[in-house]
Amino acid sequence: MTAPSTGRKAKLSRSSRPYPKGAVNQRRLPDDAKRLRKMHEDLLRAYGPQHWWPAKTPFEVILGAYLTQNTAWKAVERSLENLRAAGALTPEGLRRIPLAKLRRLIRPSGFIMRKAPALKAFVALLDQEFGGSLEAMAALPTAALRERLLDLPGVGDETADAILLYALGHAVPVADEYLRRIVERHGLVTLAAGRKRIPYNALAELTRTAFAGDVEESRAQSFNEFHALTVEVGKAHCGKVARCKECPLAGDLSRAS
Fold first, then answer.
1. Which element (helix H / strand E) includes 119?
2. Along the 257 residues of the chain, how does pLDDT read in single tens digits?
3. Mapped to the 3 state alphabet, what secondary structure does 45-107 carry?
């Protein structure tokens, strides 16, 4: 999933307050999780709050989560503008628009033969199981809702978690390629024998453990900020080639060596 730009943040009614001072207990965290939590503090100090996800409504967040798969965010913005002009940035509008026209509107995002039917499938699920209401969908328990999302075409772990966190207000961590590079390069997770990449669930579990000491009411906001901040440092310093000079996380490498 490619990183969106910053902008106005959409949300449902679940709490998104920043965690208060003294609400984090790091003393009982495993060392690797404690290091990751310290990285979050370093990034927040360096970059400030990121105010993700940039969208005007939760449904626009969901559209963006689909469209950004394997696509630069600038291309997603063009697709969203096309959908906005066509009145298709709501469940009602997307439901009404013919599939062929939807493909044309989202062409800037690429993979239109896969993404357009996937968007239609999401709206069908919303209508059939939740009466067309995102609030009703968000009320489902997290584990059950995640499984339901993963059953949809075009939805993998990262897309499901982005929808849960940013659109529906569930406290789940989102792991992406930037986080994977940070974790690998800082040696926070040891690869199992025969594996070439850290699996998604290992990244998510490490993040979940790192924020386990946060008060429950603020954990969604913590995951939100952490994901946005790792994308920010990833774009600046942790691409395919590491650029560690002046990276806010360079201190962790020094402390770990």
1. helix 112-130
2. 666 755 545 655 443 333 333 333 444 568 999 999 999 999 999 999 998 888 999 999 999 999 999 999 999 999 999 999 999 999 999 999 999 999 999 999 999 999 999 999 999 999 999 999 999 999 999 999 999 999 999 999 999 999 999 999 999 999 999 999 999 999 998 887 788 889 999 999 999 999 999 998 899 999 999 999 999 999 999 999 999 999 999 999 877 66
3. HHHCCCCCCECCCHHHHHHHHHHCCCCCHHHHHHHHHHHHHCCCCCHHHHHHCCHHHHHHHCH
Domains 31-52+172-256 and 58-167 equal at CATH topology level: no
Tokens of 252: 């962790």
How many angstroms separate the first and last alpha carbons of the chain? 31
CATH number of the structural domain 58-167 = 1.10.340.30
Q: Which two tokens stand for residue 144?
A: 């059950």
Q: What is the CATH number of domain 31-52+172-256?
A: 1.10.1670
- Where are the domains positioned within the chain? 31-52+172-256, 58-167
